[in-house]
Structures are given as structure tokens and as C-alpha cells.
């Protein structure tokens, strides 16, 4: 297949799905040219590998031995570390960010933000924290690294000293969505209670900076828009689970209790109708966990 074509990635992935469709989500996971065989026991792993090799041989596909690792409990997939605990940040990427010197040019600012954005789903309130740095990239903005930028820079590095582990979703258990909406940005974290039902574990972090027209929304509209945006990004999780929504303010409680809405809020309400979202507060969730 020639390089440079726009549809190369989609075509390659379509071919992989055609060849391994009956094994995907069971014995293997395939994304373009990244493949992982997963098993619960060593004996089962040998059987799964044999089945995979037979399939590769059937279609005359070859693997690069230098890039293959066998019989391990943890490995790198799509730039992240995957193991039985969940998904972790690649320590090489964390080291690259923590060793980054203070940016002095716009290009260096862009390089730093690009590295951080790659692991954004592991970082809470990233947009809010890095707001002073983002302002340096505005059109006709003078490159002036001030005290606020340095504090944000150091805060991100400090956060990455102990990056969180994102856990896998447990079927048939409700999700917890924390939503924080400010004037210029929003952030949320999707999580679940652990097996003891006393500790909350993160599944995914989301951050967004509002554009100018979104910043002019009322508090109610901005909060509702943030919820709609978050559900679109987390659709694959929320469609299959009840979601307990926790917001630090009360606008969403008003929306969930009001039967008739108009304008853009009515449109957003229709978009949310396919999800099972229950507005609650943190005390109610802890009380429910203790009761069960």
C-alpha cells in the first residue's frame, strides 16, 4: 500500500478487522499495526498464541521479532502501559515532561503543551491549570513567561511525580461523573467505586477550554453544554451504565427537575435522553456505598 494516502489508516484497520474479527475483544486486540494477545492463565495464553500464529500464517502475515514480547503481565500498547491494574502513563513520556526546561519561545511552549496533551486523560483540571500558558499562544500575544506560567509549569511537573492509574470499567456497576464548570473552562473525571465500595477510582479525565461564544453562555447553559460535551467523549462508557452525576453547583439539579425546557437547552436535553444519568451529590453516593 503506498504511503501518503488519507485513507491508509482506515483501510489497514478494516483489513485487520476482517482477518481477526472473531478473535477481537476475546483473545486479541488490534489497532492498525499494534496487536496484543491477552489471557487469564498461562495455559490459555499458549492456546491463544497458537490460534493467533495460525491465523497469521494462513494470511501470510509476518511479525517483527524485535518488537514482540511474550509471556509478560504488563506491556506497552498505543503508547501507554497496560496491565492487570489498569492503564498507566509511559514513564519515558513522564520523564520527558519533567525534564523539560522552562520554555523561552513560542515553539518550546507548543512542544511542552503537545507532550502534556498526549497524556491529558491522566491529568485532572489540565486546562484550568495550564490556562496562563495557553494564553501565550493567542494571536498577537507577546511571548512573556511570567510567574503564573512558571507556577502552572511546576504544578504539572509536580502532579506527574505520582501519575494516576486509570482503571478498567467494571460491567453492571454505576459510573460516577464529577463535573466542574468555570467561566473559561471545564473539567470532569469519570470513575467507579472499587470492590470495597469505599474508594473511588478514576477511569478517564477530560478537560476543555471554552471558546469565546461559549464563555458568553449563562451559567446554566455553560454547565449543560459541558455535560453534553463530556457525554459525547465518554459515550462508549456511559451508554452501558447508569451514571451518577456530581456537580459542585446546583444548575444541573434545576434542569433535571424541570419538565419543560426551551431553546438550546431543550436540544441538549434531547441529546442526553439516551443516557441513564442520575443527578446526585457526593454524600448520597457515599451513603449508598455504605448501605450496600
Describe the structure.
By secondary structure, the protein is an alpha+beta fold. It folds into three domains: 8-69, no CATH class; 89-159, no CATH class; 175-291, Nucleotidyltransferase, domain 5 (2-Layer Sandwich). It has helices at 8-20, 42-58, 91-98, 106-118, 126-129, 131-134, 147-159, 212-215, 219-233, 235-238, 251-257, 263-272, 282-291; strands at residues 28-31, 34-37, 74-77, 80-83, 86-89, 175-181, 185-193, 200-209, 242-247, 276-280. α9 (219-233) runs parallel beside α12. GO terms for molecular function: endonuclease activity; hydrolase activity; RNA-directed DNA polymerase activity.
List the helices and strands and how they pair.
Layout: H1 8-20, E1 28-31, E2 34-37, H2 42-58, E3 74-77, E4 80-83, E5 86-89, H3 91-98, H4 106-118, H5 126-129, H6 131-134, H7 147-159, E6 175-181, E7 185-193, E8 200-209, H8 212-215, H9 219-233, H10 235-238, E9 242-247, H11 251-257, H12 263-272, E10 276-280, H13 282-291
Parallel strand pairs: 6-9, 9-10
Antiparallel strand pairs: 1-2, 3-4, 4-5, 6-7, 7-8
Helix pairs in contact: 9-12
Protein name: Retrovirus-related Pol polyprotein from transposon 17.6
InterPro entries: DNA/RNA_pol_sf, Retrovirus_Pol_polyprotein, Rev_trsase/Diguanyl_cyclase, RT_dom, RT_RNaseH
Keywords: Endonuclease, Hydrolase, Nuclease, Nucleotidyltransferase, RNA-directed DNA polymerase, Transferase
Amino acid at each position: 500500500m503506498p504511503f501518503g494516502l488519507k485513507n491508509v489508516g482506515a483501510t489497514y484497520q478494516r483489513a485487520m478487522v476482517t482477518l481477526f474479527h472473531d478473535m477481537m475483544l476475546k483473545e486479541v486486540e488490534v489497532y492498525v499495526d499494534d496487536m496484543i494477545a491477552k489471557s487469564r492463565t498461562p495455559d490459555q495464553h499458549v492456546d491463544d498464541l497458537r490460534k493467533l500464529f495460525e491465523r497469521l500464517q494462513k494470511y501470510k502475515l509476518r511479525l517483527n521479532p524485535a518488537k514482540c514480547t511474550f509471556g509478560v503481565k504488563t506491556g506497552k500498547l498505543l503508547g501507554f502501559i497496560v496491565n492487570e491494574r489498569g492503564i498507566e502513563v509511559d514513564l519515558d513520556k513522564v520523564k520527558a515532561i519533567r525534564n523539560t526546561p522552562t520554555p523561552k519561545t513560542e515553539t518550546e511552549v507548543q512542544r511542552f503543551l503537545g507532550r502534556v496533551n498526549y497524556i491529558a486523560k491522566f491529568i485532572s483540571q489540565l486546562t484550568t491549570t495550564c490556562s496562563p500558558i495557553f494564553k501565550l499562544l493567542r494571536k498577537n500575544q507577546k511571548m512573556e513567561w511570567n510567574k503564573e506560567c512558571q507556577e502552572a509549569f511546576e504544578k504539572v511537573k509536580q502532579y506527574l511525580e505520582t501519575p494516576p492509574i486509570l482503571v478498567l470499567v467494571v460491567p453492571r456497576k454505576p459510573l460516577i461523573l464529577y463535573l466542574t464548570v468555570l467561566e473559561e473552562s471545564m473539567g470532569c473525571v469519570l470513575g467507579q467505586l472499587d470492590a470495597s465500595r469505599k474508594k473511588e477510582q478514576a477511569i478517564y479525565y477530560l478537560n476543555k477550554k471554552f471558546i469565546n461564544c461559549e464563555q458568553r453562555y449563562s451559567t446554566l447553559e455553560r454547565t449543560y453544554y459541558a455535560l453534553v460535551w463530556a457525554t459525547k467523549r465518554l459515550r462508549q462508557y456511559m451508554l452501558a451504565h447508569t451514571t451518577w452525576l456530581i456537580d459542585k453547583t446546583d444548575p444541573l439539579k434545576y434542569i433535571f427537575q424541570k419538565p419543560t425546557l426551551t431553546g438550546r437547552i431543550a436540544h441538549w436535553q434531547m441529546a442526553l435522553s439516551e443516557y441513564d444519568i442520575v443527578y446526585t451529590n457526593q454524600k448520597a453516593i457515599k451513603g449508598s456505598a455504605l448501605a450496600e
